[in-house]
Amino acid sequence: MLITDYATIGLSLKAHPVSFIRDQLDMLRILSTKATNNDAVNGQSVKVAGLVLVRQRPGTAGGVCFITIEDETGFTNLVVFEKLFETYRREILHSRLLMVEGKLQREGKVVHVIVKKCFDLTKMLGKLVQQPQEDLPVLTLSRADEKSAPYPTQNKRTQVREDVAKETFHNGRNFK
């Protein structure tokens, strides 16, 4: 039902998508945004993950990219410097579920993570998509969602499920 909600209206009244994979993130020692913002100390190395909401790269920021991610507990602001942006361009621009490692920086009530490494965890969202069934709404899966060329390295059902997840969980708003 969560996937159907996101596919049709872009949100859900049920739990946040990241809450369904929180156990897996905990095993990877990835903090929630609430723990990052409230409990981590200035200068601490942290790992945090969330759905990408906004990517901004203002012309006046000297190549710095600002990203806001969201999980089931809140928001975290990320700062990616130009050299690192070039290194992780693909992950930053294409991830729907982004995980970063970096140093927490706290200035009064303002908290952000200075990013050192980026990882695209979008495939984890594919696990939220159920196997295609005949009674699912057309918006979640149709014959047009399948590619005409065979999938070279993956099971076709797995790939279709991941493709549906990518279409359902929209990209964050990006700079142009």
From TrEMBL:
GO terms for biological process: DNA replication. Belongs to the DNA polymerase type-C family. DnaE2 subfamily. PANTHER family: DNA POLYMERASE III SUBUNIT ALPHA (PTHR32294), ERROR-PRONE DNA POLYMERASE (PTHR32294:SF4). This is Error-prone DNA polymerase. Coiled coil: none annotated. Gene3D superfamilies: Nucleic acid-binding proteins (2.40.50.140). It comes from Pedobacter duraquae. GO terms for molecular function: 3'-5' exonuclease activity; nucleic acid binding. InterPro entries: DnaE2/DnaE/PolC, NA-bd_OB-fold, NA-bd_OB_tRNA. It comes from the Bacteria. Residues 46-119 form the OB domain.
